[in-house]
């Protein structure tokens, strides 16, 4: 057989050497490309997902249904604001209420929710905590006014989304009530617990703006005696022995017994602890000033401040001393982590 020229043999050998790396590396290159394609979405998800993006739901125990309903946090706040404050109130007052509601539920959630229920829940939908109504319930309550009222509430909540009140880095007990007697009450004088941000402050707007500033109730003498567990002597109406800094009844002595203003209010189901009474025939006529426990933010006071041009942060700073407006995110992240 005729031998090939040397230069052809050398050229063929060199060509084989050049092609071998390409043949070996091509499958590896294809494998790496597939890996990047598969992992890319996971990398993007890891980089873009934030704690606040994770849905946080509130477990609300609906007392009338005796069941727990899960709902998104801001949706829950809308239902509370709609239930606890008239939609006709000023926008800044509604914003202040939204922060109070969001702060209250955040504190409940971070402290483990409601105890003593047959099923786990963060909060109930009654005045024991804060009232909540669903959209379907609000449609029945508001009727033809549902659309504009819901829109106004929703806008106020959205304008304060994620904002809560804190004191020394913790969500506060953001208590609120309807109408003051001209002052709010120290927490210590009503709940017997000294809370630094729940101090008595003037609230002069209530008398001008609240239709329920003054009220009167008549109770038969025998019912009055039964509820208080006393026996009245003819014409005996007792003596106020001490008042609180908020000008409410601290203690009263009647028929040889001493009661706190809160005891009288609860036993007789009065509107407030600022009251006085007189006997009229076989009945006791009781006049009250203000409506509610008096601790924290007065809702009619907040609306009066808003009418004067005060912003929601100014309203909250007046009723809750030394607090800050901060993001709910760190607290929600902690709840999500625990769950």
Automatic annotation (TrEMBL):
GO CC term (a single one): outer membrane-bounded periplasmic space
Domain Sporulation stage II protein D amidase enhancer LytB N-terminal, residue spans: 66-167
Any one GO biological process: sporulation resulting in formation of a cellular spore
Transmembrane feature ranges: 6-26
Protein origin, superkingdom: Bacteria
Name of this protein: Sporulation stage II protein D amidase enhancer LytB N-terminal domain-containing protein
Pfam families: SpoIID
Keywords: Membrane, Transmembrane, Transmembrane helix
